[in-house]
Request: fold
Amino acid sequence: MSQLQTVIKVERDREDKAAQALQMAEGNVQQQKQKLSSLQQYRLDYVRQIQQSGKQGGVDARDYHQHLQFVGKLDKAIQQQMQIISQARLVVDQRRRQWLEQQKRRKAVDVLIEKKQAEAAVAANRREQDMLDEFANQRFLRSKTNRW
Reply:
């Protein structure tokens, strides 16, 4: 039974590590979403600032062109961040599958251990019953012998 206990410990450790990897991957997705949100908010604020400048006194063509280029760079950064989030979500899905697979393995070992324990209990009960039967049989034979 000690070999099975070792196996279950290893499987539980693997399950714990898989769960931790899943949590880390989920945390990474959240961090990447926060970065995306910051980029989007910065872009929105920047565009509002440009619009405000245009209303107050105008912007010359060169500055306006530079502003548009910068907004284009922000848009590109936002697209890249969205791709990073997509990749991070794929990692989460992979880690979740790994964790669920490891959980199945651990549960299978748990079932095997429970089966072995039940078999051991049945065998112990059978031995105990055999001993009680033998004791009763000897007692019966002694009582029969003592009568003669």
